[in-house]
Task: inverse folding
């Protein structure tokens, strides 16, 4: 996570070393609202059950923000919260399927080598001498 934050800050500040403090909130917001590859959901949507309204959507109205009605929004939020556990379960199953596919691809390249009794095996020094 720290690596991703640093990469986002490096892309934003471009050599101005003191500007990272001003850019940190926008980098964190971008990380929380960007859908991830494995679950295809953003962390924000998995936590709150709805998509986040991004700052540019407030400046340049889109269909979702221009047709906003408070009463319908509350009903929609309650419906989304009812379905939140199901969305989390689907995201979890997608993540498991992704990990399984990744392991299958990795294991295709691994060649098992049986070890016999008198074979030389490389051991780490910490394992043989734990003190």
Result:
């Amino acid at each position: 996570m720290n690596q991703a934050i640093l990469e986002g800050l490096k892309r934003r500040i471009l050599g101005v070393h003191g500007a990272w403090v001003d850019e940190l909130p926008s980098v964190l917001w971008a990380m929380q609202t960007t859908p991830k590859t494995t679950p295809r959901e953003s962390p924000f949507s998995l936590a709150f059950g709805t998509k986040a309204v991004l700052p540019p959507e407030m400046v340049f109205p889109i269909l979702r923000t221009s047709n906003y009605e408070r009463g319908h929004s509350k009903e929609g939020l309650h419906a989304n919260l009812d379905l939140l556990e199901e969305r989390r379960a689907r995201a979890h199953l997608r993540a498991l399927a992704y990990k399984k596919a990744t392991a299958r691809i990795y294991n295709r390249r691994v060649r098992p080598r049986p070890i016999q009794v008198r074979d030389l095996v490389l051991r780490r020094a910490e394992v043989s001498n734990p003190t």
Summary: The first helix runs from residue 2 to 13. The chain has one domain: 2-108. The chain has a mean pLDDT of 77. Residues 2-108 form one domain.
